[in-house]
Amino acid sequence: MSKVQEWLESGEYLPSFMRDFHDQKDIFKYLDEVRERSVKKNGGSYMANLTFSDAQVYTIDIFLWVMARHGYTLQRSRKGLVFTDLDDTISRANKSRSDTSTAFLKKLLSKGDPA
Question: pTM for this one?
Answer without folding.
Answer: 0.75
